[in-house]
Design goal:
Strand order of the largest sheet: 1-12-3-10-6-5
Bound molecules: zinc ion
Number of strands: 12
Oligomer: single chain
Strand content: 25-35%
Structural class: alpha+beta
Helix content: 10-25%
Number of helices: 6
Shape: globular
Distance between the termini: 44 Å
Radius of gyration: 20 Å
Length: 281
């Protein structure tokens, strides 16, 4: 530990500045989305088995609902552009723009050089939760995903049903590619329903039992044609441990809803980012 300078208190007392004031981001037309959702028709559903993952597709303008069924369960969500799977969800930039956890009206942004909204959250039955006394909240973009490499480092295990492996198998099966090729496309997730934060004393990532109950759901609007990949985490409600078969786990339900013709005429799918890409050369 180094010695504090004489003006340490004054340096610490400086008020923070928001890194990315987000008032100038394009505002999602939530009223338009909600009006379209009222007459939308369910077209597909996928049941994601416990400790496993499944892919689903949603054309631009469709709605995707992820629901808790049977028991409290968190999910690790990957999103790709359906036409170019290398364009994928960018949890780090989403965190920088919206904060550590996302809810209704906030967006899931895609990777460079595209960096555009992939999805906009339109309904969140856990929005009441807010931020608890531990600094915990739900639907985080801080936790990457549980994976067998970290488990191996920390506990010398060979566990094959971490979300990272579940997402890898699921994507390989969906695309018809090797596990290796699929693994390079798996990326940091939206932790759906997971309740997490950072401890104030050590700054460590923590999880606690999710407040999700059967019937709760997170719903989002597909801004572009999407390939989704959702893992029902082996952590179950994440009240105790993950990266093992110890926790009680439950499936998650994904439902797709198509808008009625004409209800989205005032909307268009966002174009890729308009930065010219020259990087000063
Ligand atoms: Zn997991």
């Amino acid at each position: 530990m180094t010695n504090a300078p004489t003006d340490a208190a004054a340096r610490r007392a400086i008020a923070p500045v928001i890194c990315y004031p987000n008032e100038t981001l394009p505002k999602p037309p939530l009223d338009l989305y909600r009006a379209a959702r009222e007459t939308a028709i369910k077209t597909d559903e996928v049941l994601v088995p416990a400790r496993d993952a499944r892919c689903f597709t949603a054309p631009a303008g469709h709605f995707v609902r992820i629901s808790s069924v049977e028991g409290p369960q968190v999910g690790d969500l990957n999103l790709h552009s359906l036409s170019d799977v290398t364009e994928r969800f960018y949890s780090g930039k989403t965190r920088a723009l919206h904060g550590t956890h996302i809810t209704t009206g906030e967006r899931m942004w895609s990777s460079f050089p595209h960096m555009r909204p992939m999805a906009t959250i339109t309904e969140d039955t856990l929005s009441w939760y807010g931020i608890d006394e531990f600094g915990g909240s739900v639907h985080d973009v801080i936790g990457t995903r549980c994976d067998p490499y970290t488990g191996n480092l920390l506990a010398d295990t060979q566990y094959h049903h971490c979300c990272h492996s579940n997402l890898t198998r699921s994507l390989a099966d969906h695309l018809g590619v090797s596990l290796h090729e699929a693994e390079t496309l798996v990326h940091d997730v939206l932790n759906v329903f997971m309740c997490t934060g950072f401890t104030r004393d050590t700054g460590q990532y923590f999880m606690k039992a999710s407040p999700v109950r059967p019937g709760d759901y997170l719903e989002f609007f597909a801004e572009i044609d999407l390939l989704g990949n959702l893992s029902a985490c082996p952590g179950g409600d994440c009240s105790s441990e993950h990266s093992s078969d110890t926790a009680a786990c439950h499936p998650l339900l994904v439902e797709i809803f198509a808008p009625e013709d004409g209800t989205l005429d005032a909307w268009c799918s966002p174009a890729a980012n308009q930065y010219d890409g020259s990087h000063g050369r």
